[in-house]
Amino acid sequence: MRTHPDAIGDPENADQFVTCSSFYEEAKMFLFNAVKESRKQGIVPRTTPRLRFYRTLRRIEAIDTPYAFHRTEHRVEIQLLRAEATELFKTWNPDKGGLYQAAEREHAQIWAEKPHGPYLKHALALNIRPVLHNIITFHLTGRSVYRQQARQNIKAIMARLQEEGHAAFRDYLHFLISDMENGPAQFE
Asked: Could you say which residues of the chain have pLDDT below 50?
């Protein structure tokens, strides 16, 4: 984006942008072909429970969005994915075994909240969703912009979780934020 002519308003950098884009496309094709070739040879890429956990969270997020069509039709699939995420979390973090389950129970309570107060204070869930999305996306893409976005309003969210008595979800969210320091799960 630093060389994109539209972003910086300098058409002279168009050549540099085209060169960078060309290198990027070449690198993508190289990686695509390398993965394709390794699969032909029966080599399965190694995935860790941590990476599989974040991939499972992404699948849950894709199905369980507030505007998803026929959300109730996917209830069983969501339950199965949450059970899978629970097991992956326990495998990845045996010492924190029940944290994910406890956080999921509190997350369901948070989602059930309605806006309230004289100014119809936004439901906490609407503040949490983008943070979770950014954490998951950081781990699956490795793009640091998602790590930065996840941390933007975290203090206010953590304070509100504390205030409303959602200690398990607060601890879980703190764990996920801290885990970003270990680098993206995708590149383990």
From this structure: none
**How many helices and strands in the chain, by DSSP H and E?**
9, 0
CB 150 within 8 A of CB 135: yes
- Spatial contact of 173 and 134, defined as CB atoms under 8 Å apart: no
Domain spans of the chain? 5-40, 49-187
Q: What angle separates helix 124-141 from helix 49-63, to the nearest 10 degrees? A: 130
Angle (deg, nearest 10), helices 75-92 and 99-112: 140
Q: What's the CA gap between 131 and 136, in Å, rounded?
A: 9
pTM: predicted TM-score of the whole model, two decimal places? 0.74
Residue 80, both tokens = 């199965």
Instruction: Tokens 């933007």: give the residue.
Output: 152
Q: How far apart are CA 75 and CA 34, in angstroms?
A: 37
Q: How do residues 112-165 score in pLDDT, each as one tens digit?
A: 777 666 555 567 888 898 999 999 999 999 989 999 999 987 999 999 999 999
Structure tokens at 67: 């505007």
CA 64: distance to chain centroid?
A: 13
